[in-house]
Specification:
The chain is mainly beta. It has one domain. It is built from no helices and twelve strands.
Length: 176
């Protein structure tokens, strides 16, 4: 994964995929990688794999995305082995390995899967979806040949997503 980049001093040394066992910088700090993607430094409340979707609360605590989540959303950049680890989530830019259900397409709205607490998303045509993720767009369909790292009944696979400060308000419900 990319290093942080920018004019002036860099706020954190190391790769953006690096996960810290202790807090290195202020929670909520923003950084930009060499591709211009924007990342936020958070405190992970549970283990997550790279590409999982998380909800970010006002204290910059990140938890796996669920249908009950509300507020800002990001995609995990580095694999988090345990809770109370610190690292980066992408909130603006292009993430090339975000987790989605295998039926996700580039034309459907991005939604949170209602039947799991694992951090992946689905699309509006799936029967197991509920809440719209605003500010997120699937740019390439998931790689259904990839082995899944998420233990879920709906096969999840990585795909490319475009993020523009995604969030969930709970105002839009999708049903089949």
């Amino acid at each position: 994964m990319a290093e942080l980049s920018g004019q002036g001093p860099i706020i954190h040394s190391g790769a953006t995929s690096e996960v810290d066992s202790s807090q290195k910088i202020k929670l909520g700090s923003r950084g930009y990688d060499v591709d211009g993607n924007e990342l936020v430094y958070v405190d992970f409340q549970e283990s997550c794999i790279a590409g999982e979707w998380v909800a970010i609360d006002a204290g910059y605590l990140a938890t796996q995305l669920t249908a009950a989540s509300r507020g800002p959303v990001g995609v995990v950049v580095g694999t988090v082995s345990a809770s109370d680890r610190f690292g980066w989530v992408m909130v603006r830019g292009i993430h090339t390995a975000a987790w989605a259900t295998s039926g996700a397409t580039t034309v459907d709205p991005v939604v949170v899967a209602a039947t799991t607490d694992l951090g992946h998303v689905a699309t509006g045509t799936s029967a197991d979806v509920s809440i719209l993720v605003s500010g997120a767009h699937i740019a390439t369909a998931p790689d259904t040949c990839a082995s899944t790292a998420l233990g879920t009944s709906a096969l999840a696979a990585p795909c490319t997503v475009i993020l523009t400060y995604p969030h969930i308000s709970g105002a839009f419900s999708v049903t089949s």
